[in-house]
Amino acid sequence: MNYKESTVILEEIKKAKKILLNCHRGPDPDAIGSCLAMYKVLKRMVKKVEIICPSERLYENVNYLKDFTEIKTNIVFSSFNFSIYDLFIVFDSSSWEMVSGDKKSVIPKLPIINIDHHETNTFYSGVNLVDKNASSVGEMLLKIFVDWEIEIDADCAACLMAAIVGDTGAFRYANTTPSTFEAIKLLTEKGANKDQAIFHIFRSNPSELVKFWGVVLSKLQIDKKYKFVWSAISYKDYEKMGKPENAKETAASYFTQIVHGTDFGFIAVEQEKGILSISFRSRTGFDTSKIALELGGGGHIWASGAKVEGLPFNEAVKKVLKICRMYAKMNR
Ligand SMILES: [Mn+2]
């Protein structure tokens, strides 16, 4: 057995007729790949399954995955009728806010299974399977499916491959372990293609996004004293650039971990007026999740995120810089 919880999860699923799956807000390949993989498995168990996502937009780069169009977007959790479902399975979400995309949303009263790998998971549901050492929920699901001794077809394998490729930055990040490579081996044997996932996730950027990175780079600043690099984009500039999707996350992944003499970095984008979203990345193993947590967000050592709401752009950036410097100082 890979996980002792695998049996409990399977029992909960067997008891349920109608199952709801979640694709977290601001969906990434791990969120989408994981829920679609589970969708296929549950469908084969002849369950009624639906997938919901609070965000308006999905991550279109992975629209080659089977049943991508089954994900219902723009779901308002506060008015959604959960009572007609027997079970809710949520993936890749450190908190209920990440599940629902709504800080005020209350956790509905139905059995919930939380499958996640975030360092900062708050164990918000009845059954919590949190593996902080897993690269991705995709890697965890493969282990669960192996525990269940079920058949993994090529479509399902492709979903898990996308999840792992996305969360490991195509096997570059420190979260890529021997267990990750074992998962890749098994998924490849089941018919998944890592090159297909890498092509769609990392080599299919819209030109507007690449131009946006140029603006981010032109505003890049280095704090030599506290050893971090950062760039902040105001709503005005973001709007001018056509609000490209995944702008902040991709810029953070590409540019905040490559500057000599720094420990970490962040990209902040005012994605809505008065809401500054920040993505942190570590270059040396400096724990960025502590900064994110301090700002009300969460994540992992190497990648984390947070939002600062209700402050003018400059004030919000100042707040982030202050907390970065405080943690950088403590780290010395
Ligand atoms: Mn993940």
Give structural notes.
The structure is a single chain. This protein folds into 2 domains: 5-202, inorganic pyrophosphatase (n-terminal core) (Alpha-Beta Complex); 207-330, Diaminopimelate Epimerase, Chain A, domain 1, CATH 3.10.310.30. The chain is built from 12 helices and 12 strands. It has helices at 5-15, 29-44, 96-100, 137-147, 154-167, 178-189, 194-202, 207-218, 235-240, 247-255, 289-294, 313-330; strands spanning 18-22, 48-52, 71-72, 87-91, 112-116, 127-130, 221-223, 228-233, 264-272, 275-282, 298-299, 303-309. The strands form 2 sheets. The protein has a 6-stranded parallel sheet with strand order 3-2-1-4-5-6. It has a 6-stranded mixed sheet with strand order 7-8-9-10-12-11, sandwiched between helices. The mean pLDDT is 96. The structure holds manganese (II) ion (MN). Manganese (II) ion binds at residues 30, 92, 117, 136-137, 167. This is DDH domain-containing protein. Residues 250-323 form the DHHA1 domain.
